[in-house]
């Protein structure tokens, strides 16, 4: 029997309830879920890659088929490295579509064995993005409806000054 593996890539800067919804819904459909924090040389990020990974690890500690990785390079190469043939992405609004179409078409061109599956956001999370959550946190407003408690704490710490 072959093991089914899926990769959930992203910046996760930081992880939100929107990301977690996609992660949790994926866990019972694949044997292994590999979260991949992509190191992007052109985007510094608010949290370091190590900080992002630690926040994800804490958020998924109850899910035993989820592993967290960091990778700098092409996502399809990461998929090859771990033997995964599926990428899962979330879709929030029509505005996500164009970017995702370009990304998926490029990945397909680079490696036609890897398929990307899209999962629609749950309606109550459709407005949540890491960048909006950071904006709210920067103004010292409460973000506990959008991110797990330990992430809210990390955001408060980051924007303390
Ligand atoms: P990227 O910079 O690659 O878009 P993100 O961390 O912003 O990385 O997002 C990673 C994945 O999670 C993307 O597929 C994105 O569409 C999805 N995602 C983010 N927020 C939500 C949400 N609220 N609901 C559903 N999917 C989401």
UniProtKB/TrEMBL annotation:
MF term (GO), any: ATP binding
Pfam families tied to this protein: CTP_transf_like (PF01467)
UniProt: substrate binding residues: 11, 43, 75, 89
Key words of the record: ATP-binding, Coenzyme A biosynthesis, Cytoplasm, Magnesium, Nucleotide-binding, Nucleotidyltransferase, Transferase
A single BP term in Gene Ontology: coenzyme A biosynthetic process
Residues given in the record as ATP binding sites: 11-12, 19, 90-92, 100, 125-131
Lineage: Bacteria, Bacillati, Bacillota, Bacilli, Bacillales
Organism: Staphylococcus arlettae
Protein name, as recorded: Phosphopantetheine adenylyltransferase
